[in-house]
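hey
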């Protein structure tokens, strides 16, 4: 066993022995650790593996059996539970592969593939057109924008697209525009972040500069309208992380060294000190824990918070990129060359 892996296991033991209890019913215990160094692609018959991607690695894992498929990212990759595209450049042919690595289709278009919410998209090479394809790689529709795309967020039935200087556009499953909004404030009206919740009832937008604003849209009988607006103290000229909790009751965005969480009903914001540049946030819903990963130099800091803002646990791993997700049995995180699980055990 390498000294690094031994040190990591000791960190996990420290969390369990000295960390605070997560909830009255659960405790956090070490699960498994997978070292991704030197491992190549392997075939698997595991149904419905969970996809992961970080630090030049991608693949699938089983919650109980660790990594079941792994490969190295060539130039970029897009993946979901049904398969992946691992491509060497934006001008290369795009090949669809199954989770076992078998070729399932070849695309006649080039660009940046993006898989999300059970749907598969292609951003063209100059960043001004978005296409959706089916599971076999056939293009279903294409929508062309008047300026570059800056962010994309999708649900099962809609997709919200932020742009460089033409606001946001919302499209349905046929690629038809159903809503648009162009900011009329600030020196520039670039959209730096957009998020759509799972039932299309809310859209979160971060846009503009001097001021830069957070906007929350809510779906009404007459269409979408702004129900919350706030000038942001920390303004950035780059894409900002944002999203919704699993149940849609909260929206979140990165705010300097903090994660800001907006209650979409009460319109109140809670701050969580992540200590660095936010990479991932997992917020299941009301009264649940908030999980984050943030980069601090060459270290990734993983934290868990109660909804009162109190940090319940924290652990670190060397790396500059991370992975974070959870299910009912545990927390799955990755940094550097390692993918690991912490079990949430019912007492």
């Amino acid at each position: 066993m390498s000294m690094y892996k031994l040190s990591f296991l000791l960190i996990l033991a420290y969390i369990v022995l000295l960390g605070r209890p997560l909830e009255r019913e659960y405790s956090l215990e070490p699960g498994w650790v997978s070292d991704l160094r030197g491992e190549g692609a392997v075939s698997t018959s595991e149904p419905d593996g969970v996809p992961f991607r970080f630090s030049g690695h991608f693949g699938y894992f089983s919650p109980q059996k660790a990594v079941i498929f792994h490969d190295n990212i060539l130039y970029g990759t897009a993946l979901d539970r049904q398969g992946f595209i691992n491509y060497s450049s934006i001008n290369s042919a795009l090949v669809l592969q199954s989770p076992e690595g078998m070729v399932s289709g070849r695309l006649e278009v080039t660009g940046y593939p993006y898989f999300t919410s059970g749907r598969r998209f292609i951003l063209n090479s100059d960043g001004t057109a978005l296409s959706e394809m089916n599971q076999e790689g056939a293009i279903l529709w294409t929508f062309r924008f008047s300026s570059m795309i800056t962010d994309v967020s999708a649900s099962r039935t809609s997709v919200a697209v932020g742009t460089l200087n033409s606001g946001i556009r919302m499209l349905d499953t046929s690629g038809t525009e159903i809503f648009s909004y162009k900011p009329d404030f600030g020196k520039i009206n670039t959209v730096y972040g957009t998020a759509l919740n799972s039932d299309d009832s809310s859209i979160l937008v971060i846009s503009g500069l001097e001021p830069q604003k957070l906007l929350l849209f809510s779906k009404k009988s007459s269409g979408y309208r702004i129900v919350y607006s706030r000038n942001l103290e920390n303004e950035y000229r780059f894409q900002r992380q944002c999203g919704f909790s699993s149940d849609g009751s909260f929206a979140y965005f990165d705010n300097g060294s903090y994660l800001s969480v907006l209650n979409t009903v009460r319109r109140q914001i809670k701050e969580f000190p992540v200590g660095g540049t936010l990479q991932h946030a997992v917020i299941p819903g009301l009264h649940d824990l908030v999980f984050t990963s943030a980069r601090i130099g060459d270290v990734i800091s993983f934290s868990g918070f109660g909804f009162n803002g109190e940090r319940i646990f924290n652990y670190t791993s060397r790396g500059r990129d991370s992975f974070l997700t959870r299910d009912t049995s545990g927390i799955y995180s990755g940094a550097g060359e390692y993918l690991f699980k912490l079990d949430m055990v019912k007492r």
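The mean pLDDT is 87. Helices lie at 3-18.
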